[in-house]
Amino acid sequence: MSIPATLLLTSSSLPRALAHLRQDPLCRQFPTVSLALRVLHEALTPSSFFAPYVAVLPRQMHLPLQYTVADFAALASSAAAYASAIQLFYNALRQYLYLHRHFHQQPTIFRHESFSLTNYFWALSVALTRQNNVPTPDDPSALALIPGWDMCNHAIGDMTTYSDSASIHCDAMTSFAPGDEITICYGPRPNADLLVYSGFSLSHNPYNGPVSLVLPLLDQKLDPLVKLRTMLLQKRNATISANGLHVQLDAQSGRLTSRLYREQVQLLVLDKPSLAIALRRDVDKINTPSKESASNGKEGGHEQHLIPWPDQETMDKANRRLQDACAAAILSIKHSNETIHESIRAFLATERRVYELAKSHVVEFKP
Question: Biased-composition ranges for Polar residues (predicted)?
Fold first, then answer.
């Protein structure tokens, strides 16, 4: 597939009435904003050369800019996706307020009623879901919408795009039979990024990042050693919130992603003598990344660098704490509000499978 460069709708080619924004700090730092303004201008100009293209762009999308309160609440269990979704919404709202004030002070082609929050969020959603980096000698950070090309859905595969001065090209990454949907690869993106910036996720994605798991800390009535445990966890840079200890599970295996997380879980169940051993450990040495061996903290089938287990029962207790936390995460996803958007439901299903894997098939700690 080859698209002539003259058909690209770019962030660096703002209409004359908006040309002054090329030097605006917001547009210079975020070329996606310039691209969104270009899209909105074309959408509001019936005589535009790009009018036929803009007419077939989707009017309904589901990025964080369109999330409901229930959508955000359901996504809160996914640390990476939730943080990115909140940040995107916050940044977009600030952009709109900044631009609205700017256009009010300096009238442009946008009438007051046309530059609405709904219209800007739509144009920004179009840019976010369809933009491609198409650098030029004059603008190495230029972004562009590529008509035709951007109608292709994403699939895991090789990046097969290249460009020359006249066109931008995309070769087929696999053999397509007549009648097959033509897909392209958007890049090695995890589901959290695909959901937030493209509005979908893949049921199986080898690029998925770690999944967050929260293990509750018992209160002092149930665990007299909780203050000591918390202090030891803090010395090991543990992430602790009101909900408990936050650790990371590998998306492919369901195992804890590092030896440091395994030690943090271990600290939740050790008895007082074992915690005293932990207190004497050289914390700085524990936190040195280079100490994490290529075998992921294991050698000869045995855990290395962990505090000695006092008995098998304590080890079993650690495994149960992990399994119980996974069961709670699974239940939370099952009970998600039924009004949430299908894209979020599908994304949460992929995280649920990681919890199910960790709960059903993985014994994290063993002799």
Answer: 287-296
Question: Where along the chain do the CATH 3.90.1410.10 domains lie?
Answer: 2-198
pLDDT tens sequence across 297-318: 444 444 445 788 999 999 999 9
Distance CA 359, CA 367 (A): 19
| Residue whose structure tokens are 């003598």 | 273
User: Beta 239-241 vs 132-133: how paired, if at all?
Assistant: unpaired
Q: 271 near 277, Cβ under 8 Å?
A: no
Q: What's the CA gap between 113 and 317, in Å, rounded?
A: 62
CA atoms within 13 A on the CB side of 245: 31
pLDDT at 290 (0 to 100): 53
Cβ-based neighbours of 1, under 8 Å, separated by 6 or more: 148, 149, 169, 170, 182
The residues, ordered by sequence, that sit 6+ positions from 136 with a Cβ below 8 Å of its Cβ are 12, 142
Instruction: Report H helices in 56-201.
Output: 69-75, 79-105, 117-130, 191-198
The DSSP code for 20 is: G
pLDDT digits (tens, 9 = 90+) for 34-60: 999 999 999 998 899 999 999 999 999
Q: Return the number of other C-beta atoms located less than 10 Å from residue 333's C-beta.
A: 17
CA distance 48 to 138: 24
- Residue 148 DSSP code: T
Architecture of domain 2-198: Alpha-Beta Complex (3.90)
User: How far apart, in Å, are the Cα atoms of 6 and each of 137, 219, 350?
Assistant: 16, 65, 40
What 8-state DSSP symbol labels residue 5? G
The two beta strands, 132-133 and 211-215, are unpaired
- pLDDT bucket at 282, cuts 50 / 70 / 90: low
Give the predicted TM-score (pTM) of the model.
0.85
Q: CA neighbours within 13 Å on the CB side: how many for 233?
A: 25
8: its two tokens:
């690209």
Residue 181, Cβ neighbours under 10 Å: how many? Answer: 8
